[in-house]
Write a structure and sequence with these properties.
The relative contact order is 0.27. The chain is α+β, with helices and mostly antiparallel strands and 153 residues long. A hairpin with a 6-residue loop joins strand 3 and strand 4. The chain contains three helices and eight strands. Strands 1, 2, 3, 4, 5, 6, 7 and 8 form an eight-stranded mixed sheet that branches.
Length: 153
């Protein structure tokens, strides 16, 4: 895969048995949670560089389990509490090989309350969201879109 793409490291119906190893870029990126509501995906505008639109995400705290981290980050960044489905493990090579453990959820009541990590939020149609993210993040969103079809039915 090229330098601007995401390499899918693993995929399973449950979360990884063991966390991925540390990466050359420092601690691994714990999670991102793709939130879908009626054919739209939740995007947050980050307040720290890079100032991009992306999904709720964050780092694993010491001793924290992956799915617990995903739930915590989702709650802290959006106020949403939801069941999560594991999507897979991705390596965002454009970001110093940052390892991302990805989850998805579909919500009926999209009440969103952002914290200081975001300056805004919006619900984007899948096609729009896919155009606005970097190539490395696009593969992850495509996997989430496939998962959301299962979650919404």
């Amino acid at each position: 895969m090229g330098a601007g793409s995401a390499a899918r490291v693993a995929a399973a119906e449950s979360e990884p048995a063991e966390p991925p190893p540390q990466t050359t870029g420092g601690r691994p990126k714990c999670v991102c949670v793709v939130v879908e509501h009626r054919g739209r995906v939740l995007l947050l505008k980050r307040t720290t560089p890079p100032l991009i639109w992306w999904v709720p995400s964050g780092y694993l705290d010491k001793g924290e389990e992956w799915v617990a981290c995903a739930r915590r980050e989702l709650r802290e960044e959006t106020g949403i509490e939801a069941d999560l489905a594991f999507i897979g493990v991705f390596n965002l090579v454009e970001e110093a090989h940052t390892v991302v453990i990805a989850y998805a959820t579909a919500v009926d009541d999209p009440g969103v309350v952002i914290n200081e990590e975001s300056s805004a939020f919006r619900w984007a149609r899948w096609g729009q969201a896919l155009q606005e993210v970097s190539p490395a993040r696009r593969e992850l969103l495509l996997a989430a879109k496939r998962e959301s079809a299962c979650l919404s039915s």
